[in-house]
Amino acid sequence: DSLLQESYFRTVIMNSSTRLNFLFLLTYATLSQCQRGLESENLKIIDSLLRNYDRREMPSSKIGTPTEVTCSLHIGSFGSVSEKTMDYHADLYLKQSWSDPRLNHSQIVEVLDLNDPRLVQGIWKPEVYFPNAKTADFQFVTMPNLLLRIKPGGQIEYMLRLSLTFSCIMQLSKYPIDDQICTMEIASFSKTMRDLQLKWGQPPMDLSPKLEMLQFHVKSIDADTCENLAIDGLFSGQYSCLALTIYLQRNIGFHLVQTYLPTFLFVVVSWLSFWMDVEQVTPRIVLGITTLIIISSKSAVLGAESPQVSYIRAIDIWMGTCNAFVFAALIEFLVVNYASRKSRKVSTKMLGEEDPEKKENERKELFFAATIDQKCRLVFPILFLLFN
Fold it and tell me: Could you tell me how far CA 374 lies from the centroid of its own chain?
């Protein structure tokens, strides 16, 4: 009896499990079929909307008011800020939103996403461009990176992924402890403000949390309107324009390690000659000339790597001062050596003669040379620290 009961329960459990699996598969198939049916219905709705749709006509042209387009940016990467070419590179997503009453349909109750370029091409889109962009590329890998979203009520969202190089005119008088201001402009290309008005969304721009820059960090960002001079100077009329002002601060770490610290140490090394004996002519000359050549070579390398500007930069003042201190240390030795040799000539002429007055003059010359070295041991570091 127990065996029969156990066999009976196993049969019941297996039948229940089979029924549950069957119900699950049936439910999944029904939902999938409903989803496919809904997508097919949505495509039919879009086809019916686009049948009499003219993409050359502005959405609000029948109302007689300008079409308002809200723009916002998401920056995925920001960098390659170049002082030589005066530009920077950015990979970004441009999001545009507007209202198109012609795409308002009572059966659209949820968001419709379109990424087929042929369907997207049939819908009106704002003709915007980036006035201060040098080069621009649209992302095609692995497919065209665009998305048009139709919301209930005829609200449209249009997103593009772009890779651009923007012009950024820099002021390098304080280089490399400088702050730079770069802009990112978006403007209407063919429609005046009578037909198209651009405005910033909220927030106007957001940076990727993984964004890192090698030379700079972003201090702040301001969103405002601008004058579309590129078009205003060629055609009459006012064109809507938006501008992001990006405030950048240079990271001093690289130049501190590669420029300031080495040149500072070489200047200090040149002062070692003040502690050498006056008669050690060769070591003092070698030390002074070597440090002078090294500082001059470093200055020449920096000049070749930096952009050629017509004004003096902070780095030029620093390198010029370092050269001046090393050269002054070499001149100091020449003065000390001249005074020492002069006293030795007087001593040679006095061999065999005992003239207390001349011996006193010789002693004074040697004391003068030694005093110059002693004073320079203190004067040079104080002046250099005051300069810093």
Answer: 49
- Local structure of residue 236 (DSSP, 8 states): S
Q: Tokens 């005051």 — which residue?
A: 386
Cα–Cα separations (whole angstroms), residue 181 to 90, 95, 172, 387: 15, 24, 11, 28
Q: What is the enclosing helix (H) or strand (E) of 224?
A: strand 216-225
3-state DSSP call for residue 8? helix
Backbone angles phi, psi at 186, to 5 degrees: -125, 130
| Residue 287 burial class via C-beta count within 10 angstroms: exposed 0-12, middle 13-18, buried 19 and up | buried
3-state secondary structure (DSSP) of residue 237:
coil
What one-character-per-residue DSSP string does 310-330 give? SS--HHHHHHHHHHHHHHHHH
State pLDDT tens for residues 255-289.
Answer: 999 999 999 999 999 999 888 887 788 888 899 99
Model confidence pLDDT, tens digit, residues 121-161: 889 999 999 999 999 998 888 888 899 998 888 899 999 99
Task: Locate the DSSP E strands across 253-330.
Answer: none
188: closest CA among 198, 201, 178, 174?
198
> Cis ω on the peptide bond leading into residue 117 (within 30° of 0)?
no
Nearest to 190 by CA among 273, 144, 127, 263: 127
Q: pLDDT tens, 31-76? A: 444 445 556 677 777 888 888 888 888 888 888 889 999 999 999 8
N residues, the chain: 388
Pairing of strands 196-207, 67-82: parallel
Q: What is the H or E stretch that residue 39 is in?
A: helix 2-51
**Nearest Cα to Cα of residue 74 among 151, 161, 197:** 161
Sign of CA dihedral 13, 15, 18, 20: negative
Q: Which residue has tokens 């420029």?
A: 259
β-bridge partners, 217: 249
CA distances from 238 to 70, 192, 226, 227 (A): 18, 6, 11, 8
Token pair, residue 381, equals: 């570091």
pTM: 0.78
